[in-house]
Design a protein that fits this description.
Elements lengths: L8 H14 L12 E6 L4 H18 L2 E6 L5 H11 L5 E5 L1 H9 L5 H11 L6 H6 L1 E2 L2 E2 L2 E13 H7 L7 H11 L16 H12 L17 H16 L8 H9 L5 E5 L2 H5 L19 H4 L1 E4 L11 E10 L6 H11 L4 H5 L7 E2 L10 H7 L2 E2 L5 E2 L6 H9 L4 E2 L8 H10 L1 H10 L5 H19 L1
Parallel strand pairs: 1-2, 1-3, 9-13
Antiparallel strand pairs: 3-9, 4-5, 6-7, 6-8, 6-9, 6-10, 11-12
Helix pairs in contact: 4-18, 5-14, 8-10, 10-20, 18-20, 19-20
């Protein structure tokens, strides 16, 4: 789930209808007489327009027309299932998160030979190895990875420096900093606790991965009640009940608390980077110092990309989004040409749609191995005000962000349990357990047991 996105329910219904009616549209002219139907989960208006602009450049170069259909991520599962049943699948789907790729593959909706051909043609060595690993299974390349966004720990460097605190990159350092900085009107940390949001799941998984807490082991045994996971639940519970703000916290409230200067740390996605720099008029930092300098928080914020627990090694949650080509289509060759274009001639434009949440996973090409990484460094980010992230954040932060897709880890995918991951995102057992934990209904062991039992029930339903 890309946490920076939201649309009204009426708009969702409209998009759903548009997506279904657009599938199989075979009208159009051009050099080949073909029209590709491309679903994109980049569904914000300006992003749809930017994607269509790239597609129009492809049309000018190839003669193949492309219709971009905005598709809401929360509606994708039902939309793709309905389209498959009706025989009206799109030719290409873009901006797909890993769980959606797994769902399509499980339902045999992916042309793995076509996607592999695109990756091979572009050069496997030009991609992040981890991105290719996360988008493949059993020797099949299920999708063409296009970009990634990271879950990060943001912290107030000025407050940490004044208190003599080290970078909060371990469980102990995070807990110690939260305790010491939880004074006056400032909370030690802002963390998500609501039960009905994948953002809570992402925040927890980001901490869990670094302590060796996994959803499932190699034998498909659910391990959320392991000692490593209980320790992560304990950390999360201590942070939210002792050193965070009271009440249910979500994607908006955690951001607002940090932006107001009322928390020393926050776990959020990399989509926060441009907003933190004051580029969005509807989400400006409001801290007292921000009135004189809207970039105050950006200047005084550090970023931790990987966190380690006492039972694990530094790790980071990140999402890889991809392009995939649907199975059994009549326009496979044209689809391959389109995806190849998006990952080559049109790649910099694609990354430029939202550089703060589109880290390149194809670093360059045969002529320049760092071509796209260097281009990304200079792309303007923001909404109402635009500027390169490198103009706001130190070079070491930008470098760490660019390298982060190489170290992304995720629950379930290394164990070939992508379908289970997708199912848990529908029922959200971990956020429900966290909500019970933060509300005092469960202790750490009880929350871990509740989450594990719920996931076991989900696993059985998939058998």
């Amino acid at each position: 789930m890309k946490i920076s996105r939201s649309i009204a329910l009426a708009a969702v219904a409209g998009l759903a209808a548009a997506a279904l009616s657009a599938c199989g549209d075979d009208e159009g002219s051009g050099g080949s007489g073909e029209t590709l139907t491309v679903w994109s989960l980049e569904n914000q208006t300006e992003r749809v327009q930017a994607t269509q602009a790239i597609a129009d450049k492809f049309t000018a170069a190839s003669g193949i027309k492309v219709k971009i259909v905005a598709t809401d991520e929360n509606q994708f599962s039902s939309l793709i299932t309905s389209a498959a049943a009706a025989g009206t699948l799109p030719d290409v789907v873009g901006a797909l998160p890993l769980a959606a790729v797994a769902q399509m593959a499980t339902n045999d909706l992916v042309d793995a030979e076509a996607t592999k051909a695109v990756v091979d043609g572009l050069g496997t060595g030009t991609f992040s190895p981890r991105a290719l690993e996360l988008t493949s299974q059993d020797g099949k390349q299920l999708a063409v990875p296009s970009d990634g966004w990271a879950q990060l720990l943001f912290y107030r460097t000025d407050l940490f420096s004044k208190a003599g605190l080290p970078t909060p990159d371990t469980y102990d350092k995070i807990l110690d900093a939260a305790a010491k900085l939880n004074t006056g009107g400032t909370a030690g940390i802002s963390l998500a606790t609501v039960s009905n949001d994948a953002f809570t799941e992402q925040s927890f998984e980001n901490l869990a991965l670094g302590n060796g807490c996994e959803l499932v082991d190699a034998n498909k045994t659910i391990t959320l009640d392991s000692p490593q996971c209980v320790r992560t639940f304990q950390l999360y519970g201590d942070l939210t009940t002792k050193y965070s703000v009271p009440g249910a916290q979500d994607v908006d409230t955690t951001r607002a608390t940090y932006f107001s200067g009322k928390s020393a740390m926050v776990v959020w996605s990399s989509f926060l980077l441009d907003e933190l720099a004051g580029t969005r008029n509807d989400a400006l930092p409001t801290c007292p110092q921000c009135k004189a300098d809207k970039k105050f928080l950006a200047k005084n914020t550090g970023v931790v990309t990987a966190i380690a627990g006492p039972d694990g090694k530094p790790a980071q949650f990140g999402e890889i989004t991809s392009w995939t080509i649907t199975n059994g289509g009549e326009r496979t060759d044209a689809a391959k040409r389109f995806v190849n274009y998006l990952m080559n001639e049109g790649y910099t434009d694609w990354l430029g749609i939202a550089p703060e949440g589109k880290f390149p996973v194809r670093k360059g090409d045969a002529t320049d191995p760092a071509k796209f990484t260097k281009a990304w460094n200079d792309l303007p980010a923001g909404v109402d005000t635009k500027q390169p992230l490198g103009d706001v954040y130190p070079a070491e932060v930008i470098d760490a962000l660019a390298k982060s897709p190489d170290t992304f880890q995720r629950w379930g995918f290394p164990q070939k349990q992508g379908a289970l991951v997708g199912a848990t995102l529908s029922e959200l057992p971990v956020p429900k357990a966290i909500n019970a934990l933060s509300g005092g209904e469960k202790d750490a062991a009880g929350a871990a047991e509740q989450a594990a039992e719920d996931v076991r029930s989900i696993q059985k339903s998939l058998e």
